[in-house]
User: Which sequence fits this backbone?
């Protein structure tokens, strides 16, 4: 078994998002003597993570939370020594709203995740008609699907178990808010494996929710974030990775094998010296280009992973100009409402310390599978759309204090039908190349914790050269 932790070993990480940074952090522990270089095409680290201050508001231009039920994000914060800075969502902003016939209606606890713990909540919510509720209550009598028949879309799963109306009113906006995708094409086991496991184990999501116990009356946040923003994680990693060479503005276009065991990176500011190991921690399409001369099979498979666009319009406003109570983390928008927005966040209410007294911050998400064309609209047009949505949904009056537009083209990988099989084929192909690993959000989980886990696992595999265990 070859190790990469001797002083002469050199490792390159391609991609300076949270995945690549997590890989570098793991290498510090697993291969402390290795010479590690992280190459990032942009002039700053963090990828989609971008925290900044605008007129006294702490603004997240990308993801704003770490999912608490997955340990990887909190564990990394603990290792970095910033776990004491983590805060949960405000108890006064628990829950989420959904747009129903042009107005915001609170989603009962559990319904947003297809795991309702209270039949009373299901029976009384105005989000679903009486007919839809009766169909929903039949869920526990629906037989589990035979998983040997192949993959199943999120849409087919939700309609099969809960009926069309629950799918349209609750499930679709959930997927829209997380993946900015089309549930008709998204793979259930790839996107929401917990739902498939609940059905397999309990035969019913309602029974599975009941088996998990009664909901606690005390507010328990499922999300966390550093008090100073998600960017604090990136900032701390950069400061503590003193043994890593960070090369910004270094765009890797391809890699090639040199001799039997070395790799050379080709591109801008990539350096001339070959390296012993490479971790490619870029979006799938970029990885496809980089690996084209190494493995055509893996490259073609990676190129087939689609991604959706997202534009975020961030709005600062006076609190007394907003009619809504803002007593939730935000809202989701079903496609059947035929609106431009996919979702929105009451950012200043979700976490404390995000806006000056008397002011509020909103984030409005535009684009996704429903409106991919919006990414190409002008800033003024996107702001106009976002303000129109906020005026109709939360009663925003007058002009905002300020606005900011953040575009993330091709940023959300779509785990479509057959995704897990595709990833398995990619992993099998890459396993044939010693000293090469892939990591990122395009494979086995989106969100910050999954990215951290993917990067650290890639680093461990590279150091241990354990590819034979994955075949």
Assistant:
């Amino acid at each position: 078994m070859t190790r990469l932790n001797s002083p002469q070993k050199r490792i390159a990480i391609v991609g300076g998002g949270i995945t690549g940074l997590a890989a570098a952090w793991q290498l510090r522990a697993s291969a402390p003597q290795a010479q590690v270089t992280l190459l990032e095409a942009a002039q700053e680290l963090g990828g989609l993570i971008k925290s900044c201050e605008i007129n006294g508001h702490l603004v997240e231009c990308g993801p704003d939370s770490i999912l608490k039920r997955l340990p990887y994000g909190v564990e990394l914060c603990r290792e970095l020594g910033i776990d004491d800075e983590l805060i949960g969502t405000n108890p006064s902003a628990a829950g989420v709203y959904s747009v129903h016939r042009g107005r915001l209606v609170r989603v009962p606890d559990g319904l947003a995740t297809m795991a309702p713990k209270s039949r009373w909540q299901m029976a009384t919510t105005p989000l679903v008609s009486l007919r839809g509720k009766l169909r929903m209550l039949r869920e526990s009598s629906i037989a589990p699907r035979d998983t040997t028949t192949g993959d199943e879309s999120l849409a087919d799963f939700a309609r099969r178990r809960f009926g069309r109306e629950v799918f349209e009113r609750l499930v679709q906006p959930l997927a829209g808010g997380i993946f900015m995708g089309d549930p008709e094409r998204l793979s259930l086991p790839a996107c929401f494996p917990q739902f498939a496991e609940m059905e397999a184990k309990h035969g019913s999501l309602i029974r599975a929710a009941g088996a998990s116990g009664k909901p606690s009356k005390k507010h328990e946040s499922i999300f966390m974030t550093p008090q100073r923003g998600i960017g604090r994680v990136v900032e701390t990693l950069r400061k503590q990775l003193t043994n890593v060479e960070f090369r910004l503005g270094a765009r890797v276009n391809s890699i090639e094998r040199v001799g039997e065991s070395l790799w050379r990176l080709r591109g801008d500011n990539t350096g001339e010296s070959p390296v012993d190991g490479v971790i490619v921690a870029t979006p799938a399409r970029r990885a496809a280009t980089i690996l084209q001369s190494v493995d055509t099979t893996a490259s073609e498979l990676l190129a087939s992973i689609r991604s959706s666009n997202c534009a975020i319009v961030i709005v600062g406003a006076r609190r007394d100009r907003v009619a809504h109570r803002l007593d939730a983390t935000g809202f989701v928008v079903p496609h059947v409402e035929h609106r431009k927005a996919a979702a929105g966040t009451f950012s200043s209410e979700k976490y404390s310390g995000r806006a000056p007294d008397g002011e509020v911050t909103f984030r409005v998400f535009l684009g996704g599978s429903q409106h991919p064309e919006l990414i190409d609209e002008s800033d003024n047009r996107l702001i106009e759309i976002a303000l129109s949505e906020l005026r109709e949904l939360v009663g925003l009056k007058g002009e905002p204090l300020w606005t900011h537009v953040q575009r993330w083209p091709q940023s959300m990988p779509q785990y479509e039908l057959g995704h897990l099989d595709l990833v398995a084929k990619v992993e099998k192909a890459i396993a044939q190349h010693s000293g090469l690993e892939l990591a990122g959000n395009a494979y086995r989980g989106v969100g910050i914790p999954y990215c951290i886990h993917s990067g650290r696992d890639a680093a461990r595999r590279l150091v241990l050269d354990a590819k034979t265990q994955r075949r």
User: Anything to note?
Assistant: Residues 448-464 form the longest helix (17 residues). DSSP finds 16 helices and 19 strands in the chain. The two ends are 15 Å apart (CA to CA).
